[in-house]
């Protein structure tokens, strides 16, 4: 999708700050600059952005290189009641919310999303655990949605709210039904993971009996309702800045390899932000909230894994 410059400028005044690549010294000297360039990871972001034009794309692959199976990771079957109710009805009642610092909040069904101009891309997903998969993703460019919603000038980040609970505030990995919540594990450092990854082959093996995905959503009968859980769930969330939000490859995907996303890979809708690592690719996205600051969410790190020590800008 081609965004007209004027539209972009009216859509997001926040973009102007990141787009002024020529004025880096001045940028570093401003309040925002000082706040942004506080540690190494932000310097990494700054240098990468200096070297990139706004529309730098991740590599796209030929269809023949698509992995026979896209390994699911992290949450593969959200235990949450609300999600289970949606899945039981094949997501026919799912609505994506776009709100926060927008002129016109949106609420869109899957049919609404599919009716919008879409984009299909074959890209490689790199997880910090050291595996990669190539998949074909189809979805709606986030730029399309943000342009329709119209950003307010203070908007700087898009926060993705996901349906899946990973743990409960104050500790506790027990699901409402007493089952243990799946707890993902990652290497101690994203960069360690990335170094392993550089040497790793693309993941392309066949599923084994023990890790076969529970895909085909809507297949199972509705489950008995779990009792309501009074504890505060900590759900997966992620965030990106407007620079990445308007990249043409940044899409909310509803199809994987030409078929509706399996639940294990994030049905009904998941983020693809192709120049970043796997944990940025939020699955089970229910709501996109436009905000000025990330400090009000979780521990303020900008994502579930970021709150546990991973870098916010996971560029590859
Ligand atoms: N909602 C949600 N999104 C998530 C995760 C998760 O646990 N929950 N895991 C992340 C990680 S670490 C990876 S590698 C990818 C895995 O996506 P996949 O299951 O399609 O392979 O999803 C990312 N997005
Ligand atoms: Mo990951």
From TrEMBL:
Residues 91-166, 233-292 form the Oxidoreductase molybdopterin-binding domain. Residues 205-231 are annotated as: Disordered. InterPro entries: OxRdtase_Mopterin-bd_dom, OxRdtase_Mopterin-bd_sf. Transmembrane segments: none annotated. It holds the Pfam family Oxidored_molyb. It comes from the Bacteria. PANTHER family: BLL0505 PROTEIN, PROTEIN-METHIONINE-SULFOXIDE REDUCTASE. This is Oxidoreductase molybdopterin binding domain-containing protein. It comes from Methylobacterium pseudosasicola.
């Amino acid at each position: 999708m081609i965004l007209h410059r004027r539209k972009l400028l009216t859509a997001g005044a926040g973009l102007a700050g990141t787009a002024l690549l020529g004025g880096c010294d001045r940028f570093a000297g401003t309040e925002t600059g000082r706040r942004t360039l506080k540690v190494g990871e932000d310097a990494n972001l700054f240098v990468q952005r200096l070297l990139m034009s706004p529309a730098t794309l991740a590599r796209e692959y030929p269809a023949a290189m698509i992995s026979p199976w896209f390994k699911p990771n992290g949450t593969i079957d959200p235990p949450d009641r609300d999600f289970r109710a949606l899945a039981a009805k094949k997501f026919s009642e799912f609505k994506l919310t776009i709100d926060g610092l927008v002129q016109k909040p949106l609420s869109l069904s899957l049919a609404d999303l599919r009716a919008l101009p879409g984009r299909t891309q074959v890209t490689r997903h790199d997880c910090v655990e050291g595996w990669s998969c190539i998949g074909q993703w189809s979805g709606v460019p986030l730029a399309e949605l943000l342009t329709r919603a119209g950003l307010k000038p203070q908007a700087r980040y898009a926060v993705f709210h996901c349906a899946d609970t990973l743990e409960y505030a104050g500790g506790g990995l027990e699901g409402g039904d007493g089952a243990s919540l799946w707890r993902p594990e990652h290497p101690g450092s994203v960069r360690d993971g990335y170094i392993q990854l550089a040497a790793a082959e693309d993941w392309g093996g066949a599923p084994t009996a023990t890790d076969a995905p529970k895909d085909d959503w809507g297949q199972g009968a509705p489950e008995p309702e779990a009792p309501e859980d009074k504890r505060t769930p900590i759900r997966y969330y992620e965030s990106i800045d407007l620079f990445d939000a308007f990249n043409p490859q940044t899409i909310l995907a509803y199809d994987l390899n030409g078929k509706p996303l399996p639940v294990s890979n994030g049905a009904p809708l998941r983020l693809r932000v192709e120049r970043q690592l796997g944990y940025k690719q939020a699955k089970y996205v229910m709501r996109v909230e436009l905000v000025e600051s990330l400090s009000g969410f979780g521990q303020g790190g900008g994502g579930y894994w970021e709150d546990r020590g991973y870098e916010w800008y996971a560029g590859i």
